[in-house]
Amino acid sequence: MSITYNLTTSLSSTSSAFLAPSSFNSRGHVSLPVKGVGICKCIATPEAETGYKTKVTRNPNLGKLQAGYLFPEIARRRSAHLLKYPDAKVISLGIGDTTEPIPEVITDAMSKRSQGLSTVKGYSGYGAEQGEKPLRSAIASTFYSDLGIEEDDIFVSDGAKCDISRLQIVFGSNVKMAVQDPSYPAYVDSSVIMGQTGLYQKDVEKFANIEYMRCSPENGFFPDLSSISRPDIIFFCSPNNPTGASATREQLTQLVQFAKDNGSIVIHDSAYAMYISGDNPRSIFEIPGAKEVAIETSSFSKYAGFTGVRLGWTVIPKELLFSDGFPVARDFNRIVCTCFNGASNISQAGGLACLSPEGLKAMGEVIGFYKENTNIIVETFDSLGFKVYGGKDAPYVWVHFPGRSSWDVFGEILEKTHVVTTPGSGFGPGGEGFVRVSAFGHRENVLEACRRFKQLYK
């Protein structure tokens, strides 16, 4: 099966944010061997066996969290499945972890920087907590050209997920959060840990004092903003994880206006923006007025295979102010300088290589490979008669199993096909009845998983 995408690595004059992938054919030069399947173990701290206890009370907010974090729980169930079926070839299309090697143009730059640390001339110790100037400048010119974002608006980090928690520290406990429902679970869990929420309400499967903005096929996966009570902070991911939906220019304009009308701040998670192949905005800063109400986080994880390397960034414009006129960026800078010593100098060298012409082309090819995987998965579930969403502008396919428990479907697929997916309810109550299938996988594994899906649901 060969599916060719016509994508471009050049920036549009009207949309200078995130780059769409370049033209790529899966039978070209990214044909990669299958790695051996290992056991992913969820490591938990064992309960103390002694009777001694300190006099330190546990953080009550951590006690509010429900069960385990979604992805370690999936890993635990996967490990249990492998103990039950030790000879099974388990294929993981669950956690959104990249599988294809990092392009050599990028690893060569990291290797050169690493080797340089062995020399007097090439050694460097602590760097700027905000990131190295050449990388910040490259991010600004590559993704935010003509959008009024400057290099000193950009904070380089060890990943968008880490920045989400740092932003939560900036806003503190006395704010009300709004999240898409379903959405990436780190938004809700970090809000709970910060003390922004009430207790978990089992009857509705929600935490009190969080505004869950329902995103469903019926509303095009964009919430009805007129039905939402005023939040302080709005987490909004586009393209969305898990639904794969990307917001249109009109929708993001509505969101920015809603934030202005309510005096709210939008945290726009654009970690999958380079997967957008159409005209939808790749940055919220393409929307007029967004610099006064928005922050943007992003990452090299799903573009360059940096899930283990760890490198991302957050944009906080100078125009974004608290109610007393104090710049949000100055408080974030203080948190960064207090809690962080800056991203690894080796990973930053890799990030700079990512943004070279050769690096952009290589990233586009890898993204194209994953998008072909997505198309294969979409076609498979379509052929089986399922309602399928996402898959166009994101590496996730959102499959509807109406009237069924997401965890039951997850268990059925794992038990009968030895394929790991992700239960939709793990992303919020709006995900019940759905399963997320990730396109991150070797081509041979994706094809085999789809063959098993067809055998199960034919």
Strand-and-helix sequence, N→C?
HHEHHEHEHEEEEHEEHEHHHEEHEEEH
Compute the number of helices: 13
The percent range for strand residues is: 5-15%
* Separation, N- and C-terminal Cα atoms: 20 Å
Shape: globular
**C-alpha Rg (nearest Å):** 22 Å
If classified by CATH, what would the architecture of the largest domain be? 3-Layer(aba) Sandwich
Helical residue percent band: 25-40%
Pfam families: Aminotran_1_2 (PF00155)
Keywords: Aminotransferase, Pyridoxal phosphate, Transferase
GO molecular function, one term: transaminase activity
Cofactor: pyridoxal 5'-phosphate
Brief sketch in words of this structure:
The chain is α/β, with parallel strands linked by helices. It contains 13 helices and 15 strands.
Describe this structure in words.
The chain has 458 residues and is α/β, with parallel strands linked by helices. The protein folds into 2 domains: 63-100 and 360-457, Aspartate Aminotransferase, domain 1; 104-355, Type I PLP-dependent aspartate aminotransferase-like (Major domain) (Aspartate Aminotransferase, domain 2), CATH 3.40.640.10. 35% of the residues lie in helices and 12% in strands. It is built from 13 helices and 15 strands. It has helices at residues 60-64, 70-84, 104-116, 133-143, 160-171, 185-194, 249-262, 301-304, 328-339, 345-354, 357-383, 406-417, 443-457; strands at 91-92, 154-157, 177-181, 200-201, 206-207, 210-214, 233-237, 265-269, 294-299, 312-315, 388-390, 396-400, 419-420, 422-423, 434-438. The strands form 4 sheets. It has a 7-stranded mixed β-sheet with strand order 2-10-9-8-7-3-6, with helices on both faces. It has a 4-stranded antiparallel β-sheet with strand order 11-12-15-14. A two-stranded parallel ribbon has the order 1-13. A hairpin with a 4-residue loop joins strand 4 (200-201) and strand 5 (206-207). Helix 4 (133-143) packs parallel to helix 10 (345-354). It is globular. The chain starts with 59 loop residues before the first helix and ends with a helix. 47% of the residues are buried. The model is unreliable at 1-44 (pLDDT under 50).
